[in-house]
Specification:
Length: 125
Amino acid sequence: MEGDGAGILTSRSLERKILLCAGVILAGITIVGRYGMLPGAACGAAIAYGNFYLIRKILGKAFSVEGGVGKGFVVQYVLKFLALVAVVYLVVRSGRFDLLGFLLGLSALVFGVLLEGASRAVETK
């Protein structure tokens, strides 16, 4: 384990935890029987995972440059953020997906990060 936090950029562990949380959310929705929420939750989880993947790639490139942060980092990060806002807006505006399911799917990223933090905290003890 790297103590400086840079391991988070190269670790696939967080990606696996995000996917695990997305699976748990989808399974929970299925168990409860709210099948109409499944497409929205799957769409939200896919967007959350894609967002994390792009963040990891952008940050990985930015900090791989010797002597500091790459010049295009800010532009790439802002464009990724604007694209995320646009995609979320279009999905919500389309009305094709259940909004609660979509938000639950998007929360897979947050739950995955919390799970990764908890597992790393337990590992260090």
